[in-house]
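dude i think i finally got it to work??
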Amino acid sequence: MSNATSTSIVSTLTAATFQINRYLTICVLLFGTIGNILNLIIFHQPKHRTNPCAVYFFYASIAGLIALYSGLISRVFATFSSDISATDATICKLRAFIIWVSTTASSWILTCATIDRYCISCRDVRRRNLSNLRFTRRLMIVSVVGGSLVFGETFYCYVPNLRNSPLTCYGQHMTCRLYNEIASALAFVFIPSTIMMIFGYATVQNVRKLLRSIAPMATTHGTTMTIKKTDRQLIRMLIVQIILLTIFNIPLAIQRLYLTSTLTVPKSLLRSTIENLCFQIFYLLSFMSFGIPFYIYTLTGTVFRNEFMDLVRLVYRKMKIAVF
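look at this
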């Protein structure tokens, strides 16, 4: 390949990376913000506050919002040369810590939700009793504290003003980067995903057994049927989210490990540009997983969709009254 052709490709890929970081990131932030706020409104309704899985979804939405803004807002600012975290050490370290803790906590909160759905679908009364709000709160606290302990090293490792790294604010040397990539791959992606897949599969099997063995209840038990329907739909919503979460996050985990393992390998400008473009795409794809839960719930959950439409109608009526 001639130098002129290589230079042209590099320029094109660099421009594409810039456009992705600016405009696509803004879109993800916008839709993610709207979706997570709507999740918070719906799951904060009184009838959901006593459902452990709905409580998990509520706090996962909070963690998702924190992850979106801590992870993506600096990318937008960087395209305007206004990213403070790229030059200020304190903000760089704090931002990295918040990103890792919020993303890891979100992943483990969903893992806990999967275990909760497994417990609620079991015939064993002792296992079903594990699905309670006190246990839910304890597990969420453990998730946040655990993430903080695992990624507390960011206050030492992360430094700004780096040049030969995927991000300007990144691990300062090989040991830090290797620890971060392995820890994030295990704590954020592979271990939670494995647990979610195992318990998700077990939950599906439990639900199938229950549906085969339990005859349809009489219409006089409408309240019980509604609760069971809600639980089944929460399970469906959760399983779809688990699958997409795994698909969206594995590429970034692999790319991070690859970049760190080839850190000392001499690379051409074209190869470095291609790798940077792949990293930016996978990075954004990973954060999309924190912005799409509302849309997953709306598409897969009839109860959730109906509640959203009720919310829309309520807002419309209030606006109509305010206008007239």
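Residues 215-227 have pLDDT under 50 and may be disordered.
im so relieved honestly
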